């Protein structure tokens, strides 16, 4: 990988423009989840300790190029100061005089938060003038927002081409983990892909069958594949119109030497609710819906994981939010965690439902790496070029 890290840059006496993702949730007027703020603290502290001014670029919400007071990053500033343990200056605009004056007033090691980049229409348009206005504020550009790297915006791509650029600590960790999972992985490689619909993950499945040795498909997606092979799925969530597409993916996998793994037994119920009366079957009754993979399916997945060296996971294997239909997801996650702890498996997971499922299973801390990047993680899994990463290379 040809991008630079913080360790290859000299920040002494320099101003670093650091793109971060601090688009955090609020409840009752206060930040309710500090995960994204905590994730960028190492980069801020390292640049500050090296004698650089740290100028934070970020978006908040979707103001669509207009100034929306309730989407001001001033709301995030107190939480940022609390977690960082030092004052953070604030500029009422991310370009022009307010930004220049705030940066000029700062000393080496200080942190300045600039106003929401999306208050300018030029941000999402990746306007060259906007990028130039941002670049004029600093000496070095640092991207520590992998979660925004799939967007070609002025603060994620445009400015990176105008200044010496590098990856921050979070971006560096993410890119190294992803390279270990799909770029140059230890084999055999297993991908677990779950979720409700095949239609949302066609590009993902098409890319993975060419890169992994086993593709485990779960959740509602598995129903579509089972139906495409002539299996009964009762009243289950199923995209019957995608049967030809599912068969194409199965053929493509066969040609690429990738084994697709579908449930061999099913946990079915007559209603979609926690603790609904349920049974384990091999064939779904007409009046029932499939809500999880059964114990024989879990055993088959565990055996595959035992042989694997690399695991990449996106999406649950069943209706994980409803007990006891979280059993397959929990068991497979706990098996992956056990192998990771033993040093036998590199495990990388990402996507909102995936993170929630692994947290419910109590194993999120045991995986090699968990990405919170959502869209960027999915696009990377799909084999797409991420503009924010590409801009750091070369």
Written description of the protein model:
It is a single chain. This protein has 394 residues and is α/β, with parallel strands linked by helices. The chain has 2 domains: 6-171, Rossmann fold (3-Layer(aba) Sandwich), CATH 3.40.50.1260; 185-381, Rossmann fold (3-Layer(aba) Sandwich). It has helices at residues 35-49, 77-84, 96-105, 121-124, 128-135, 154-158, 169-183, 202-208, 219-228, 243-256, 295-307, 327-341, 352-360, 375-381, 387-390, and strands spanning 15-19, 26-27, 30-31, 53-57, 89-91, 111-114, 140-143, 165-167, 189-193, 214-217, 259-261, 266-269, 278-281, 289-293, 310-314, 346-350, 369-371. The strands form 4 sheets. The chain has a 6-stranded parallel β-sheet, sandwiched between helices. Helix 11 (295-307) runs parallel beside helix 12 (327-341). The chain is elongated, with a radius of gyration of 23 Å. The mean pLDDT is 95.
């Amino acid at each position: 990988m040809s991008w630079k890290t913080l360790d290859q840059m000299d920040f002494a006496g320099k101003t670093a423009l650091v793109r971060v993702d601090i688009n955090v949730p609020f409840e009752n007027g206060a930040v309710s989840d500090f995960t994204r703020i905590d994730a960028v603290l190492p980069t801020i502290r390292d640049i500050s300790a090296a004698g650089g001014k740290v100028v934070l670029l970020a978006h908040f919400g979707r103001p669509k190029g207009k100034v929306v007071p309730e989407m001001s990053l001033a709301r995030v500033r107190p939480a940022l100061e609390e977690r960082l343990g030092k004052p953070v200056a604030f500029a009422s605009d991310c370009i022009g005089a307010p930004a220049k004056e705030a940066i000029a007033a700062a000393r080496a090691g200080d942190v300045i938060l600039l106003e929401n980049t999306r208050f300018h229409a030029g941000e999402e348009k990746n306007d060259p003038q906007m990028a130039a206005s941002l670049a004029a504020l600093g000496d070095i550009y640092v991207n520590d927002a992998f979660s925004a790297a799939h967007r070609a915006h002025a603060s994620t791509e445009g400015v990176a081409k105008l200044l010496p650029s590098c990856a921050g600590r979070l971006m560096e960790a993410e890119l190294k983990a992803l390279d270990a999972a799909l770029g140059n992985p230890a084999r055999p490689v297993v991908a677990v892909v779950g979720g409700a619909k095949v239609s949302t993950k066609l590009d993902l499945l098409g890319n993975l069958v060419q890169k992994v040795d086993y593709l485990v498909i779960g959740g509602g997606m598995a129903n579509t594949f089972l139906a495409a092979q002539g299996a009964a799925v009762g009243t289950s969530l199923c995209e019957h119109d995608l049967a030809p597409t599912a068969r194409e993916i199965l053929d493509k996998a066969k040609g690429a030497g990738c084994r697709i793994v579908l449930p061999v037994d099913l946990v079915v119920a007559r209603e979609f609710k926690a603790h609904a009366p349920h049974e384990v079957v091999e064939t779904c009754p007409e009046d029932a819906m499939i809500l999880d993979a059964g114990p024989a399916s879990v055993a088959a997945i565990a055996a595959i994981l035992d042989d694997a060296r690399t695991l990449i996971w996106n999406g649950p294997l069943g209706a994980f939010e409803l007990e006891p239909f979280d059993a397959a997801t929990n068991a497979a996650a706990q098996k992956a965690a056990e192998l990771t702890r033993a040093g036998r498996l590199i495990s990388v997971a990402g996507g909102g439902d995936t993170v929630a499922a692994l947290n419910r299973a109590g194993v999120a801390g045991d995986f090699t790496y968990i990405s919170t990047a959502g869209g960027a993680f999915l696009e990377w899994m799909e084999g797409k070029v991420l503009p924010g990463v590409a801009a750091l290379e070369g």
